[in-house]
Design a protein that fits this description.
alpha/beta; six-stranded mixed beta sheet; 40% helix
């Protein structure tokens, strides 16, 4: 197997005396789409924050495309081709949708000029279905479209690896299905994806492999069908009722 695109070796993050993430070791290969699940407070977003340097991990043994990144600043990490979305979407409210995406292109997408950034932004707005809203203030978007804007901004950074944090939170079932389709198109572009998700429908639809955190520690990392039958995962996260339903359908 070729070298991992992203490699974590006993990565940790503490806040005072609290170990939010402890000794997480993980490899993600280029082209994968991996689900990251766990109970509330398990450390999922903290792990994504540590990978992207906001704030940096306490234990800094991270490598991205063979380069150590545990000591790097967030803008340097992003410029290497590692982008992320945020669970709580906070676009620049007084800027237009187009200007928000241009910011992503200028920040880490390699655009050499405002004209280049504008072209790159329009490309991503077309891809995400936001082109008709390009000149609308970001503050006027619905939640579903703000989520799409998060994706457009991150894609304008031209990532090789995209970390998605609860991109479906707050969406209705129709909007979730649309988001699933869009994430599938992103993967078809050859972008590697690590997705935090609380909707098992989404994880099981998208992700052949699932990683599970509990109390900041990695308790499972395996094929999706095996993870949802793992007794440790059932006890910590899924619950016996889910296990019974899933086993009945897929046993």
């Amino acid at each position: 197997m070729s070298a991992a695109l992203l490699e974590l070796d006993r990565v940790g993050r503490t806040f005072g005396g609290v170990r939010a993430v402890h000794d997480v070791s993980l490899k993600i290969q280029e082209g994968e789409i991996v689900g990251l699940i766990g109970p509330n407070g398990a450390g999922k977003t903290t792990l994504i924050n540590a990978i992207t340097g906001v704030p940096p991990p306490t234990s800094r043994r991270l490598r991205y495309r063979g380069t150590a990144i545990g000591h790097k600043k967030p803008n340097h990490i992003a410029a290497l081709g590692l982008a992320r979305t945020f669970q709580v979407v906070q676009p620049f409210p007084d800027m237009t949708v187009l200007e928000n995406v241009m910011a992503g292109s200028l920040f880490a997408g390699g655009s050499a000029s405002m004209a280049d950034a504008r072209d790159a932004a329009r490309e991503q707005l077309e891809f995400t279905g936001l082109a008709p809203l390009a000149d609308r203030p970001a503050s006027k978007l619905t939640l579903a479209n703000r989520k799409r804007l998060e994706l457009a901004k991150s894609l304008a950074m031209r990532p090789k690896l995209l970390l998605l944090d609860e991109v479906n939170a707050g969406l209705n079932s129709a909007e979730v299905n649309q988001a699933l389709e869009l994430i599938g198109k992103i993967r078809a572009r050859g972008i590697t994806i690590l997705i935090i998700e609380h909707l098992l429908k989404v994880v099981l639809t998208l992700c052949p492999r699932i990683v599970v955190l509990h109390h900041g520690e990695l308790i499972a990392d395996d094929a999706a069908n095996d993870v949802v039958r793992d007794p440790k995962v059932i006890e910590a996260y899924l619950g016996s009722k889910f296990a019974e339903r899933y086993g009945a359908r897929h046993g």
